[in-house]
Amino acid sequence: MSYLINGEAGSSHLLMGNEAIVRGALEGGVSVATGYPGTPSSEIVESLAGVAKERNLYVEWSVNEKVALEVAAAASFAGLRSMCVMKQNGVNVTSDFLLHLASSGTRGGMVLVSCDDPGALSSVNEGESRLFAKMVEIPLLEPGDFQEAKDITKWAFELSEEIRNLVMIRSVTRMSHASGNVRYGKLPDGKAHAQFDFHGSLLDQEKGPMISMVVSAAELQHGPQQEKLRKAAGIFEECPFNTYNGPERPELLIVTSSACNLYSREAIKALNLEKKAGVLKLATTWPLPRNVIKRHFALTDRIMIVEEVLPTLEENIKVLAAEMAPEIGIKTFYGKRSGHIPSVGEMNPDLVIGALSSVLGLKRKSMPEAFAGKARKLAETVVPKREMTFCPGCPHRASYWSIHNAIEMDNRKGFVCGDIGCYTLGMLPCGFSTLKTVHSMGSGSGIASGFGKLTQFGMDQPVVAVCGDSLFFLAAMHAMAIAVLQTSPFSLVSLDNSGTAMTGFQAHPGIAANAMGEEMPALDIAEICRAMGARVEKADPFDLEGTRKALNEMMEHREGAKVLILQQACALSPQRKGRKSYEMEIDEEMCLGEECGCNRICTRIFGCPGIVWNREKGVSTIDELICTGCGVCADICPQGAIKRREAE
C-alpha cells in the first residue's frame, strides 16, 4: 500500500510538494483526476494513479490539457470532486474551455492545479499562470509550505463547492519538487455517486443544463460569476492560511506567497531582522483579502513584495493600496518595479537578502562580486564543461543524423520545424543543429504546413517537421488534418519512441495502457494519417541509410502532406533499458583518430556519450558502462573501425 494512503491521522511524513498536494486531494475526497504530463506537475497524476484502485479513483492522462479539464468538469457536473493538473504552458492550451467553465460554474468541488516553472528549469519559458485566474475570474490559492500544500488542496474543494466555481492552485518548481514534513489528516470513508441533473431551468446551476455565457445576455451569468468571486474574497478575509510573522509595528513589511515565503523567512533570519521586518504570507492571492491587507499596511510605511516571476501580486496590491490611501496613507513599495526584486528567473534567499540589505541600508551583500568571481573561476577549472546532449543510444540522435544528411543531399536549402520534447535538443550541436523553428507543442507541424503553402509566392525549399508520438495526439494531428486538406507539401517525421519519454513514459493514446496501468486499445499513428489521406511510410531510425532514403524520396514528392514514422523505443524505456542488441567494440588498429579524413566524426560530430576519445592512445573507445548497444555508431565510421556483434 502506498505511503500516501497508509498513515494515521496526525502522523507526520516526509513528502515532496506534489505528493502533499496528492494527499490533500485524497483527504478532500477527490474522485476524478486528469492531466497532461509536464514537469514540474507530472508526479501529481502519477501518484494518484498509483492509489486509484485502493481509493476508487478514475485517473486519466488526457490527450491534452483542454480535454483534461473537460473530463474533470464532467465529473464536477455529476457532483463528484475532481482535479485537473498541468504545468504553466498547459493553462494556455486549456484557456478556451477554462473561460467558459468559469462562466458556467461547477457543482462538485473542482480544483485546477498549475505548476509554474520560474527560471524555466524544465521549460522553454517561465510563463505565468496566475494571470489566468484574474482573467477568467476564479479564486487563486498559493501554498506557502509543504503542510499548506496538503491543507490548502483539501480546503480548495470545500471553497469550490461553497462558491460553486472552479478554484485554481498555483505551485512552483521548488514547492512541487522539494520535500518537507507533512502531518496527515483523515481520509474520507464515504463512496461517491455520480449523477448529472439537467431538468431545471436554463440558469439553475444546481439542477439545470450546464452552459456557458447566454448569448446577448452577459449579465445573466457574468454578474453571478463576479458575485462568486466577491464571495470568495469575503471568505479569504478569515482564511487561516493568510499569516503574519514579525513585530507589531515592522520597519519593513514583506508581502509574499508560495515558495518565496520560505526564502523571505530565511533571509530575515540570516540578517537578524526579526525585530525589524515582518512577513505577511498570502495564500489567497486572487482576489486579495482587502481587510487583511489594510490591517497590516496600517502598521508600516514601507512594503516589499517578494514573488516569482512577474509583478502580478505587486501590481494587484498597489491597486488596493491606492484605493485605501485616504485611510492608511501613502506607502513606499519595493519590489520588481523598483528594481529590488528581479523579474526574470527563480527567487532564492540570497536575492531576498540583497534586496533587504539595499532597502534597509545594511552593509551585508548577498554575495560579494569577488567571491562570485572566484566561484565562477573555480567552477570553470574544476567542473568539466558538459553540453546538453541526447542519452546514449537515443533514437533521436540517429533520426537527426539521417534528417540532416537527407536535407544536405537534397541541396535545396530545406529546413526542419521543431517541437517540444527530448527532440527539442535537435536545435543544438547534439542534434546537428537541425531544427530551425521551435515554439509551442505541436507548432512545428502547423508552421511547416504554413511554409508548405508558400509555393505560390515562389518558395521552393523542402519543409520537414518533427514531433513525438505523444505530441502527435496532443496537437500535431490537427495540423496534419489541415495540411492534407490544403495539400500542403511538407513532410512530418514522427519520432515514435513509444512513450512520453521526456516526462517519465506516461501513457498516451498510442500506448496500449492507461494511466492506471489498465490495458487499452492503442491508436495507430500510421493508420490515422492514412485515414486523413496522407502518404505514410515507416522506418527504423537506427537504419541510417534506409531512413535517409525514405526522407529524400518524400521530399522529392512535392504533392500533399507526407508522414515518415521512425519507430524505435527510448533507451530508458522499460522495453530497452538494460538490454543490448549489440556488443560494441573499436578496432584500435583500424581507428586512425585525428589522422582519419573524418577527423574523429564519431566523438566530435556524432557525439554519443557511449563513445569516448582516448587522448593517450589517440583512438576512440567504447564506454561499456553506458553504451546501450544500439549499433548505430558502426554505420557512421568511414574506416569500419567500430564493430558490432549480436549481444548474447
Tell me briefly what this model is.
With 648 residues, the protein is of the alpha/beta class.
Tell me about this structure.
The protein contains 21 helices and 24 strands. The strands form 6 sheets. Strands 3-2-4-5-7-6-12 form a 7-stranded mixed beta sheet. It has 4 domains: 12-236, Rossmann fold (3-Layer(aba) Sandwich); 243-369, Rossmann fold (3-Layer(aba) Sandwich), CATH 3.40.50.920; 395-567, Rossmann fold; 582-646, Alpha-Beta Plaits. With 648 residues, it is of the alpha/beta class. The mean pLDDT is 91.
Widest sheet: strand ordering: 3-2-4-5-7-6-12
Radius of gyration: 28 Å
CATH topology of the largest domain: Rossmann fold
Number of strands: 24
CATH homologous superfamily grouping of the largest domain: Thiamin diphosphate (ThDP)-binding fold, Pyr/PP domains
**Residues in β-strands, percent:** 15-25%
> Which outline best applies?
globular
| N-to-C CA distance | 38 Å
* Mean pLDDT over the residues: 91
Q: Give me the number of helical elements.
A: 21
User: How many domain units?
Assistant: 4
List the helices and strands and how they pair.
Blueprint: E1 12-16, H1 17-27, E2 32-35, H2 42-50, H3 52-55, E3 58-61, H4 65-77, E4 82-87, H5 88-104, E5 110-116, H6 130-136, E6 140-141, H7 146-163, E7 167-172, H8 173-177, E8 179-183, H9 222-236, E9 243-245, E10 252-256, H10 260-270, E11 277-281, E12 284-286, H11 290-297, E13 302-306, H12 312-328, E14 332-334, H13 349-360, H14 369-382, H15 395-410, E15 415-417, E16 435-437, H16 443-452, E17 463-468, H17 469-485, E18 491-496, H18 525-532, E19 535-539, H19 544-556, E20 562-567, E21 582-586, H20 601-606, E22 611-614, E23 619-622, H21 633-636, E24 642-646
Parallel strand pairs: 2-3, 2-4, 4-5, 5-7, 6-7, 10-11, 10-13, 13-14, 15-16, 15-17, 17-18, 18-20, 19-20
Antiparallel strand pairs: 1-8, 6-12, 9-11, 21-24, 22-23
Helix pairs in contact: 1-2, 1-7, 4-5, 10-13, 11-12, 15-19, 16-17
